[in-house]
Design brief:
- By secondary structure, this protein is of the alpha/beta class.
- The protein has a single domain, classed as HUPs (Rossmann fold, 3-Layer(aba) Sandwich).
- It has 7 helices and 5 strands, in the order E-H-E-H-E-H-E-H-H-E-H-H.
- The protein has a 5-stranded parallel beta sheet, sandwiched between helices.
- Helix 1 packs across helix 6 and helix 6 packs across helix 7.
Length: about 230
């Protein structure tokens, strides 16, 4: 593993994708790594416990949990009294009700603010535009637009001698199976990760929401055993 002595912030949900993203950042020599998670009122808050443990196991210098109550806006099955869709056959036909309005914009804005405080110019986010649920804020053009805005909006990038801010999306064009294979190569323990949108009271994955279906299919296609506990 090469070292480039560049610190990085990784947005970490405690899920499969963001954990793989953290492993890639570390493998590419970024360090120290700062892990940033969000308690935004999501119904699947078990992921936050996973994020803390993952940051510890993977050697993050610091893990921050930001609290933002997006339940005040609602309009998403993840933050409102709306049923989580189950067993959807076609996941990219339309934007599903599990889409949380402006979520990645909010998360990246917090990441940008912390980056400016730490003088960090690199933020990693595990968005994916191949095996995903159809969210508009997971597309390459969205990431490019936010990065352009960020480089116009902060003191660290606009003052004399300022260096550019970059958003890294190493998973954006990978299938779920490819993501899992890459993570296995890097030693990721996927048993630590949590992905389900609608877990039961014991924290077991439902096995039927979009996130569970994508996860199960990914492990199957990767030829890797799925360590997930399903209810």
């Amino acid at each position: 593993m090469t070292r480039n002595d560049r610190p990085a912030i990784v947005l970490s949900s405690g899920g499969l994708d963001s954990t793989t993203c953290l492993a890639i950042a570390r493998a590419e020599g970024f360090g120290p790594i700062y892990s940033l998670s969000f308690d935004y009122g999501q119904r699947h808050r078990h992921e936050l416990v996973a994020a803390v443990e993952i940051a510890k196991v993977m050697g993050a210098k610091e893990h921050r949990l930001m609290r933002i109550d997006l339940r005040q806006f609602g309009k998403s099955a993840l933050t409102d009294a709306i049923d989580v869709p189950k067993d959807r056959i076609e996941m990219s036909a339309e934007i599903p009700i599990t889409y949380v309005p402006a979520r990645n914009t909010i998360f990246l804005s917090y990441g940008l603010a912390w980056a400016e405080v730490l003088d960090v110019r690199d933020v990693f986010i595990g968005v994916n535009a191949v095996d995903y649920s159809g969210y508009p804020d997971c597309r390459p053009e969205y990431i490019a637009a936010f990065e352009k805005m960020a480089n116009l909006a902060t003191r660290m990038t606009t003052e004399t001698g300022g260096k550019a801010f970059a958003i890294h999306t190493p998973l954006i064009r990978l299938t779920k199976a490819e993501i899992i294979r890459r993570g296995v190569e890097l030693g990721v323990d996927y048993g630590l990760t949590f992905s389900c949108y609608d877990p039961d009271e014991l924290g077991r994955a439902c096995g039927h929401c979009d996130s569970c279906l994508l996860r199960k299919r990914g492990f199957l296609e990767a030829g890797v055993g799925d360590p997930t506990v399903y209810g």
